[in-house]
Design a protein that fits this description.
Helices cover 55% and strands 16% of the residues. It contains 14 helices and 16 strands. The longest helix has 59 residues, at 135-193. The two termini are 22 Å apart.
């Protein structure tokens, strides 16, 4: 090795280690920069191939080291774990929130809500059975029935409100997803324009990670370093171009799904991909929102609970109406009877009749439809206006048939008869409801429904906690890989500094030899 060669090598080494120290300084300066990916200088041996394979030729070919590259610590495998776990955690957290909200509504079905009001109603029926002619008792009975109806109405209203709020969240998520897709395309373009810097690349992956919290996404890093994004298997971002926008069509009257998804081309707005998109765009908070609105076999959603409480309200109203209007046919020998004035100031019984059905039925609908649901059940206004229309009596004409077969009108004076009120009381223990194919009492129906929703909420909470822990661990591992570690940087700083000092000493030594040689001339 000649002195010139040694001088050149040591000088090059000084420069290389100086550059390496600059990278260390840059890392330390960005220790608190969110999303920053630490960088390292990569050296490689520099050899001048002169074709001389002798020992001296090999020595002459030695040229020190050179800077091969500056690499970052971006680990796509670890990043994939973060993206996947972020999507899973967001999905279960959103599902947990939705089921927790549904559980709060369903709590109103149990012993502290609707069931308690039903108990009050049957207690009022018991008082009616004891005092069938007492107007205040009749009014209490009607008020108790109104309380039951109002609770059914309130639960139905809360379900509808929650459903509408979830629909609004779906639309907001669509806007956010489309905004993120646009930002990723812009970040890809910025990545190329800024010389493929690590900060620009980190910005792309940060956006992808944020997007993954809304839906499952896959990515592909292209040869130029830009990232393509796939949603539902469709390439929605290709480099610096957003190819598609996401759309959601929400229709609660649809016989199939409440929410249908589609991807619309940004270049040709008439081109829409809708086949299978709803099933393919899953995961994340958006996937959970869509799934919750469309329903799942794994848990009850708004529609499931609404269908069941509608059934409960209808079963309850039907059973009470049948008792209230029992025997309304003209030739009935056993029939319900209500109170009326005979025109002489006396209160007598009157048989319920078909032509009075609309006035005497206990429950009808607030919207004028024929099917009673939790949302429209109400106490008949005519009964509220005239409590005497409550049919507390049930008459058996066999008890008033004379020996000659004629029927006495004495039954009309049996105002103390409360057999129909007794039938209402017995309804509490009758299996008037059908819960998923099983006959049960209304109370058991409501408690079973509330219990199922509560169990769904508990399961979702457990899953949310589990997947949040998985996400946190994946994120921690990823940050440990890409983040700046001060101990590592100080270690590298000392290593590069000592290498620089050694190269400088070598340079100084060789330079001294030159001075000695020149002094000898």
């Amino acid at each position: 090795m000649s002195l010139n060669q040694g001088l050149y090598i040591s000088y090059g080494s000084m420069k290389n280690n100086q550059y390496a120290l600059s990278v260390v300084a840059h890392n330390i300066a960005n220790i608190n920069t969110e999303g920053y990916v630490k960088q390292r200088v990569n050296f490689e041996e520099s050899v001048l191939y002169n074709g001389d394979t002798t020992v001296l030729g090999t020595i002459r070919s030695l040229n020190g080291s050179t800077l091969a590259s500056i690499s970052d610590y971006l680990d796509e495998g670890a990043l994939r774990n973060v993206i996947d776990s972020s999507s899973d955690a967001a999905y279960y957290n959103t599902l947990n929130d939705a089921l927790s909200g549904l559980d709060e509504i369903a709590d109103a079905l149990g012993d502290n809500g609707l069931n308690a009001l039903l108990n009050d109603f049957y207690a009022a029926a018991a008082n009616l059975e004891q005092f069938p002619t007492d107007i205040s008792i009749r009014q209490q009975y009607i008020a108790a029935a109104e309380n039951v109806c109002e609770k059914f109405n309130d639960i139905s209203s809360k379900l509808n409100t929650s459903r509408e709020e979830m629909a609004s969240n779906v639309n907001s998520s669509v806007d956010t997803i489309n905004s993120l897709l646009s930002k990723i395309a812009e970040a890809n373009e910025a990545y190329i324009k800024t010389g493929k810097g690590t900060s620009a690349q980190s910005a792309i992956y940060s956006l992808v990670e944020e997007l993954s919290q809304y839906a499952d996404v896959t990515t592909q890093t292209n040869s130029n370093g830009m990232v393509s994004v796939y949603l539902g298997g469709i390439e929605v971002v290709q480099g610096a171009e957003q190819q598609y926008t996401l759309e959601a069509n929400i229709d609660f009257n649809s016989p199939d799904k409440n929410v249908e998804l589609a991807l619309r081309s940004t270049e040709n707005e008439d081109y829409v991909i809708d086949k299978g998109i709803t099933e393919k765009v899953t995961g994340g908070s958006f996937g959970a929102q869509v799934e919750f609105l469309n329903g799942s076999e794994s848990y009850y959603n708004y529609d499931d609970v609404e269908e069941l409480i509608n059934s409960a309200a209808n079963d309850f109203a039907t059973a009470l109406n049948e008792i209230q209007t029992y025997g309304s046919e003209d030739d009935a020998d056993v029939f319900a009877a209500y109170l009326k004035s005979d025109g002489n100031g006396n209160t007598v019984l009157e048989k319920v009749s078909a032509d009075m059905y609309d006035e005497l039925v206990m429950f009808n609908t607030s919207d004028g439809t024929t099917t009673i649901t939790a949302g429209n059940i109400r106490v008949n206004q005519s009964i509220i206006d005239n409590p005497n229309y409550v049919a507390a009596a049930r008459i058996d004409l066999a008890d008033y048939t004379n020996e000659d077969g004629t029927i006495s009108d004495d039954w009309k004076n049996a105002v103390g008869n409360s057999n129909n009120a007794n039938e209402i009381m017995d309804l509490q223990n009758q299996k008037i409801c059908d819960y998923k194919g099983t006959d049960c009492t209304l109370s058991n129906f409501l408690n079973t429904l509330a219990g199922k929703v509560g169990q769904d909420a508990n399961d979702a909470e457990s899953q949310a906690d589990l997947y949040q822990d998985i996400k946190d661990e994946a994120k921690t591992n990823y940050l440990n890989l890409i983040g700046v570690n001060l101990d590592e940087e100080l270690s590298d700083m000392l290593r590069y500094q000592r290498a620089y000092e050694a190269s400088a000493r070598l340079f100084s030594t060789i330079n001294g030899l030159y001075d000695t040689i020149l002094g000898m001339v």
